[in-house]
Structure formats: C-alpha cells, structure tokens
Amino acid sequence: MSHAMVTCRVCDLAYVDRPPSAEELAESYHSADYDSAREAEDAADAYAEAIEPVLKKLKSRGSALEIGTGTAAFLERLKHAGFKELVGIEPSTSAIAAAPEHRKAWIREGVFEGNDFPPDSFDLICCFMTLEHVHDPGSLVAAAHRLLRPGGVFVGVTHDRRGVLNRMLGKRSPIVDVEHMQLFSAQSSRELLERNGYCDVAAKSFWNRYRLSYWLRLVPMGRSIKDPLTAAIRVTPLDAFRIPMNVGNTISWGFKR
C-alpha cells in the first residue's frame, strides 16, 4: 500500500504529487501507535557512529534540536557527546509515553514549526527518518537553516531509493510505504540542502545494526509465516546480537556559513 509517486528528472526525488493535507498528516502521527522503542536505541547507536566525523567539525556543542525525536534516544547520545541543551520535537503521544522519564523533559509534543524558536538558536539540528514523512521537506530544511548558528550543521538520515537492496526489491521494499510522502536518493538529499543555502554539503551510506527479529520484520514475506517466526526468534539468545547490514540508508549534512 502506498500513494502514487512521480519522479523528478532534475533532482531524482520520488514524491507523492497529490499528498494528504498537512493537517491530516499531523493528526495521523499524533494518534499513531508506537512499538519501536527497542529498535530506536539500536538506530540511535548507528546514527551516533555515522555522525561522529561531522560533529568533529563543529566549533561549539551548546544546543541541539532533533525533529522527530521519538523516545529521544539519539538526544541521549548527544548528551554523552557533550551537548548542553537538548530539544526534541515529536508528534506521537505514544512515542513520548514510551520514552524514559528523564528524557521526557527534552521533548516537546507537536509538529516542527520554525517560528517556535528564535533564529541562530542551535549548533546542530537533526532529522532522522522523518524527511520522508513531512508535507514539505524544503520548508523544513529552510527553517532549520534559519535556526542554526553560523557554523552550525543540519544532519538528515533518509532511505536511499537508489540503494542496491531497494532497487532489487522494487515496490516490495519496505521503504515504499503509505506513510512516505517522498523517497530520496543521495543526489536528492544533497540537492535538498544545497538549494536551501547550506554549504559543504555531503551524503554517504552507512550501516545499521539491528536484532534479527527486526530485520525479519522488514522482509517482504507473508504475515502467516513472518509473525510466528519473529515471535519465536525474539525469545532465543540469537536475538541478543545486533547484525550489521547496509540496507540503503543515507546520512546527509550541510553547514550554515
């Protein structure tokens, strides 16, 4: 199940040309269930490793904002990396409820609005696996640019529709999802930032590490087989191990001059 998408021949973005309204999207995420708390911790570890070379270029680690923070697992990693002020925006009440108590003070419930913060407020703004879901990613990264201090950086993580595995699976790839309003490639991720005023823009693929039960959830297989198999694996020692795999995810970044 997915919305019909078209592809831009200039920037290589695949996008829904007749999307639901921004209000409909906001309401759907506000009321959505959340069952990925354990996977969020694994994802945060992968993001922290992938972003480390970018953080080394920052002159200051004063404040950080994460758009689509979920349970604020990645904000926890930023705290350990030395950031002093942490803010996360999350529309899902279920995700916030699943966050550990000490993280809830960092989270603001709602949809990201650039006018909620004064310009030049943050040294780092992150948006992981969220740009595919928003109504207008261009407006989001433009607003983030205004909120960054000079020398600050925006970092995004998106699926790469041009990744080998996603090309092999085609419409059976889990990235073809009814919730995704657009699907990026490395090219369109870079152009998104370059067209909105960022400099020193770059993008690269990276590896995720998840438990076997989570990888199995993504396999295009009938539920009658997949669900009992996943449940069985979860109660075995095998599921304690995190398996590294490059499944076609891209991390992209750009700095404010």
Automatic annotation (TrEMBL):
Signal peptide: none annotated. GO terms for biological process: methylation. SUPFAM superfamilies: S-adenosyl-L-methionine-dependent methyltransferases. Gene3D superfamilies: Vaccinia Virus protein VP39. Keywords: Methyltransferase, Transferase. GO terms for molecular function: methyltransferase activity. This is Class I SAM-dependent methyltransferase. It comes from Sphingomonas piscis.
